[in-house]
Every structure is written in C-alpha cells, then in structure tokens.
Specification:
The complex is a heterodimer of chains A (about 290) and B (about 300). The radius of gyration of chain A is 24 Å and the shape is globular. With about 290 residues, chain A is an all-alpha fold. The longest helix of chain A is centred in the N-terminal third of the chain and has 39 residues, at about 5-40. Chain A has a domain at about 65-160 and about 195-285: MetI-like (MetI-like fold). The termini of chain A are far apart. Chain A has 10 helices and 2 strands. In chain A, strand 1 and strand 2 (about 60) form a beta hairpin. In chain A, helix 1 packs across helix 10, helix 3 (about 65-95) packs across helix 6 and helix 3 packs antiparallel against helix 8 (about 180-205). Chain B is an all-alpha fold. Chain B has 2 domains: about 1-45; about 55-295, MetI-like fold (Orthogonal Bundle), CATH 1.10.3720.10. In chain B, about 75% of the residues lie in helices and about 0% in strands. In chain B, a hairpin with a 7-residue loop joins strand 1 (about 60) and strand 2. The longest helix of chain B has about 40 residues, at about 1-40. Chain B is flat and about 75 Å long. Chains A and B meet through helix 1, helix 3, helix 4, helix 5 and helix 6 of A and helix 1, helix 3, helix 4, helix 5 and helix 6 of B.
Chain lengths: ~290, ~300
C-alpha cells in the first residue's frame, strides 16, 4: 500500500474512533435518562409527591424525603453561600500574591477532592459529637455546607473576575475606600453571578448521600422534622434504601424508579436553571 | 482627623473579617486531617499498624478474635479504580479530542453542557442504574450470578470520572498554541498526525492531571461502589469477584458500630488512609497542572 493511502486510512479510522467515543458517552447518558424517565414516569402522581410512605414503605409517596432534602439544602446554603462569597471577596479583592494566598488556593482545590464520605466522618465528630447537635438535619446540613464550600468559593470568584477593573478604579479615583468600592461598584454587579454559580454546588449537595448517612438521615420517619434537632428523610438516601436495603426490593422497584426520577429532575432542574441564568447574565454583561 | 482614624479602623476590621473567611479553607482542611488522625489513633492501642496494613482479614465482630486487616479493601479500591481508568482514560481523551478538533463549534456548544449533565447525575442514581441496568447485563455476558462485582463498579466509576477527565483534557488541548498545529499542517502532516503527534504530546501534562483528578474521584466515590460491587469481604482474585472498597466498608459498618469502640476508631483509621490517598493523588495532579500552566504563561 502506498504511504499516502495508508496515512489516509489511519486518519479516517482515527477520527471515526473519536466520534465513537463521543457517541458512546452520549448513548450512556441517553440510556440513563430514558430508563429513569420511562420507568419512573409511570409512578409519578400527585399522591406520590404529596404523601408519606405507607405499609413499610411498599406504598404511598415520598413527600417526607422531598421535604427533608429541601430543608437540608437550605441549611447547606445558609452555611456555605455567605462563607463562600466572603472567602471569594477576600481572594479576589484583598489578597496579594503571597505564600499564604497560594496556600489558601491549594487548600480549596484539595478540599474539593476530599471524598464525600470523609466529610461524613468529619461531620460525625465535629457536629454530631463535639458540638452536640446529634444526628440531626442541622448536623447533616452543616456537613454538606462544608463539603460545598470549595465549590461556592470557586464559583463566586469566577463571578468577581468578570467585573472589569475600570469599575474598581473609577470608585477608588473618586476617593472611595476599598470597602466602599466593593460595596457600591463590585458586589451589585457580581452578586447575581455569584448566586447562580453557588446553585450548581447546592444541586450537587442535594444529591449527595454519603455525607448524610451518619449525620442525620433516617431510614423511615412517620413525621416531618419539627426542629433542626430532628432526623430527616432525604431523597438520595431514600433511593439507596429502596434500591438495596428494603425487605421487598423487587416489589418496591417502581417506587425506587419514581424516587430516582424526582431526584434527578430536582438536581438537573437546579443545574439547568443556573446554567441558563448564567448564560443570560454573561450576554447582558457584554 | 478623628473621623479618618475611625474610617481606617473600620476598613481594617472589614478586611480582617474577609481574611478570616478566606483562611477558613486551610482551617477546614487541617481540621479534617487532625480529626481523622486523633480519632484513628485510639484504634492502634489494640490493633498493630502492621496488621492493619498487611492482613487481609477484616472481621471486627468475630466472637473469638476481632481482626482488623485492611489489605483486601485497599486492593479492592485499587482494583475498581484501575478498572475504571482503563475504560475512562481512552474514552475521555477521545471525547476531549473530538470536542477540540473534530466537532463544529456549534455542536461543541451543545455537547459541553450535555457532558455537564452527566456530571450532575447524583452518584446514588448512577449506582441504582448500575444495579438495574448493568448488573443483569454483566451477569449475562460473563455468566456470573448477579453481576454485582468489580467489573460493574469499574464501569460506573468510569462513567463518574469521565466528565472530569473530558473537561480538563479539552481545556489543555485548547490551550496548545495554534502555531503548533499550523506548523505541523504546513509541513505536510495530516490532521490526524497533527492531533496525535503534535497536539496530544503538547497537552500531555494537562491530560495526565485530568486523569489523576478523575482517579481521585474514583478512589473516594462511595455510593456507586457500595451499591454494585457486592461488598464481599474476601480478598479479591479477579474482576468478576465481589469486592468491598474502603469507602463502602465505612458506609456499611459505621451505622451499626457503637461509638468510641476499637471498631469505631478503626473505621476512622480507614477514613484517614482514604484521605491520605486522595490527598496525594490530588496534590500530584495539582503540581502537574500548575507547572504546565506556568510554562504556558
């Protein structure tokens, strides 16, 4: 075979392999979404969404789990969003390129690689035992809050970076102090972007199971949590139980599919809202 | 004059407040490490460290003699991780190369958010799908009982680490200066040769970092492996064996164990091993990535 022809054939096969890789990933994603949509869709009804599980969780709905996931995500946000924003303001507006700043950034990158179950262990010691919050929705929310912190910091800093330096210089030139400048000329433009970025982190937290396993999530509760000291049911943990721990796994498989669909719609819904809002914001800024 | 002093004081206080928030990241990281270390140490009053790291028998609730050997779980974790990387690295690099070199920019604008969707699927959902979709399929293909084994775990971990590998590899492929590929094409190389022999080597350190970050995620992933690997405690002899990873073992046993017993402390010791392993992998990835970015600038 002529070298030129060989070169051509290798090229065709090579690019075909790249397309195949892309196609494979898309196929897996579509298979996932299709399977859950098809088998979970039939289970979804107003009753499923609004009622508690009945008869040893073989019937009824998942309302306590939806409520619990909502509640724990709110606690996560209350801890993680303000702290993450303030840390990002420090890094982007105040910090100089010192060794300490580099160490902070290194810590943030490493924190986002700490396994979620290790955050769970940390939460058991710090929140459940040392601070005596017990296994509760508060402990679980704070554990998830720490886990999302590196993501909220990074997302908030990204938003701050999009503010042109001219805004800052304008304020400083008029005699504003640093904080006055941040308050009047940086934050008003950056906060919407910071909030949408943090929603992406919160969506991931809402779908996490390992950190809440031992800090507050309950197998089954006949009532909704009345205070922050109560245990709670959560969608991801409920799915785990329905899929692997229930005494009649095959019988409750449709309910597990329904739970998976609700969880995925919730998480991807939060994700997509944030992505669309971010896209609009960026276009407006241009 | 006094007013100015007051203003300066206020500014300093505000700066100190933000500084405190900034430094929190370091404190949390050190806090996690110290918490794991201090809670793990009491375990070694009863367990020999050498036994903990080299014995393959883990049986803390045995009525005769409680055994705390971690080796089977370390091997299991490494097995599913290596299996996942064998699948995810070629596919991930292939997709990254497709996105950076083959796809039309409009297609790319659509596909990138689609891959973000894959990253957004909660791990417990991926585990559930592994259980109901891949389990029966693997059982059929390999003629094993239920398909809950290291192969299934590897496949799911590959899927979970793909988004990380793809997005960072693609960034580093895009960061290769255009002059490189233009020079290569001008010398008569085909587009494929340009991609394979010029762009991929130029982006290699970024791609290596991407794979290591993906590996870090795979090592630390809990729910997917917990749900699909079968969780047998025996030493694994092949990919069709049921395996129990370190993460899965913590998840299974921490719920049942009484607080402040040797068993409880031993689970934190596993957490410490896990933390050190992922920390080392992530730090190495970080060093590779920073070096690469410094060279680019």
């Amino acid at each position: 075979m002529k070298p030129a022809a060989r070169k051509k054939i290798i090229q065709v096969i090579g690019f075909l392999a790249l397309r195949a890789a892309m196609f494979l990933v898309l196929a897996i994603l579509l298979l996932f979404l299709y399977d859950i949509g098809k088998k979970g869709g039939g289970v979804i009804s107003w009753e499923f969404l609004s009622q508690a599980p009945r008869r040893g969780m073989t019937e009824g709905g998942i309302f306590p789990a939806i409520f619990g996931t909502f509640l724990v995500t709110v606690i996560t946000a209350v801890l993680s969003v303000p702290l993450g924003m303030c840390a990002a303001i420090y890094l982007n507006e105040y910090a100089k390129q010192t060794g300490l700043t580099r160490l902070i950034r290194l810590s943030i990158r490493n924190l986002s690689g700490v396994p979620s179950i290790v955050y769970g262990l940390f939460g058991v010691i710090l929140f459940v035992n040392v601070l005596r919050f017990g296994t509760s929705v508060l402990s679980a929310g704070l554990t998830l809050g720490l886990m999302t912190l590196p993501w909220t910091i990074t997302a908030s800093e990204e938003a701050l970076k999009t503010i042109p330096n001219a805004y800052r210089e304008g304020a400083l030139a008029l005699g504003a102090t640093k904080w006055q400048m941040i308050r009047t000329n940086v934050l008003p433009y950056a906060v919407p972007g910071m909030l949408t970025g943090t929603v992406l982190g919160l969506a991931r937290a809402a779908g996490e199971t390992a950190p809440i396993l031992f800090t507050g999530a309950a197998f089954y509760l006949p009532f909704l949590p009345k205070s922050l000291g109560d245990q709670f049911m959560a969608l991801p943990y409920h799915l785990y139980i329905m899929a692997t721990q229930h005494h009649a796994i095959l019988q409750v498989r449709p309910l597990a599919y329904g739970t998976a669909l609700v969880l995925i719609v919730l998480v991807l819904g939060m994700n997509m809202t944030a992505v669309v809002v971010r896209y609009r914001l960026r276009r407006k800024q241009r | 004059m006094r007013k100015k002093k007051w203003k300066n004081l206020k500014e300093a206080a505000i700066k100190a407040f933000f500084f405190t928030c900034g430094i929190l990241a370091i404190l949390v990281l050190i806090g996690i490490f110290l918490t794991l270390l201090l809670t793990a140490i009491p375990a070694f009053r009863e367990i020999k460290i050498s036994e903990f790291l080299t014995s393959t028998h883990w049986d803390p609730t045995s009525p005769e003699k409680a055994e705390y050997g971690l080796l089977s779980m370390i091997v299991s974790t490494l097995m599913v991780t290596v299996g996942a990387m064998l699948l995810a690295v070629p596919i991930g690099i292939g997709v990254a190369a497709y996105l950076s070199d083959v796809a039309h920019w409009r297609v790319r604008e659509i596909l990138k958010p689609v891959i973000e969707i894959l990253a957004g699927i909660p791990s417990v959902v991926v585990g559930f799908l592994g259980l109901v979709l891949f389990g029966p399929a693997i059982a059929k293909i390999f003629h094993t009982g239920n398909g809950l084994n290291a192969v299934n775990g590897s496949v799911l971990l590959a899927i979970m680490s793909l988004p990380t590998i793809i997005s960072i590899s693609e960034d580093s492929l895009n960061a290769v200066p255009r002059a490189y590929s233009e020079a290569s094409l001008a010398l008569g190389a085909s587009p494929w040769q340009t991609l394979f022999r010029v762009k991929l080597p130029a982006a290699l350190s970024g791609i290596i970092a991407a794979c290591m970050l993906g590996m870090g995620r795979a090592i630390g992933e809990t729910m997917t492996v917990l749900m699909v690997t079968g969780n047998a405690r025996a030493f694994p002899h092949g990919f069709l064996n049921s395996v129990r990873t370190m993460t899965a073992n913590i998840a299974i046993e921490l719920g049942e164990v009484p607080y402040f017993t040797t068993h409880y402390y031993a689970l934190f010791a596993i957490g410490l091993v896990l933390f050190i392993m992922t920390f080392a992998v992530n730090l190495a990835a970080d060093v590779v990535l920073r070096k690469y970015q410094e060279r680019e600038q």
